[in-house]
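User: Hi! I'm working on a homework problem where we have to compare a predicted structure to a textbook description. Could you give me the structure for the chain below?
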Amino acid sequence: MNLREQHSFDAPVLRAEHGMINHYLPIPDEVTDAFRAAGVRRVLATLNGRRYRRALTGSGDGGSRLVVGAALLRDIGARLNDMVHVVLEADPEPDAVDLPEELAAALETDEDAARRFNAMTPGMQRSLSLYVSTAKREETRIRRALELARKLRTNTLHADRKD
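Assistant: Happy to help. Predicted structure tokens:
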């Protein structure tokens, strides 16, 4: 597979009713197979004309899906059972992390937190970024960013606990 090759299709917004309850877009088997054969796990997904970095997630039946949260659905103007136009291509920078403004600002002012954040895996960085970016209100995003910076600096993230 050419890493610039694009796969275009329409998919319904579905909702998982067991396990982790979430909305998702099913990926056609031939697209899943092409990405797996090329070793691609992270993609650039253009959904109804808007571009996002996403991961291909296993669907449990051998297929794959794109998990889409409420904020993303709002961005693309879609709801449960709506059809979404999807264009996928391999992410040329699979380790890239899109930082929300609030987290970037908090890390700029806290060297110790930034050092620890930058030493984390891209997956952990994405998780922390998502925690900040999914808040609807700016005040909440700022509060979460500052809270994360403090926890990074003081080694008090949930993952730091030794139960």
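For your comparison, note the following. The chain has two domains: 7-90, 101-160. The first strand starts at residue 7 and ends at 12. Good luck with the assignment!
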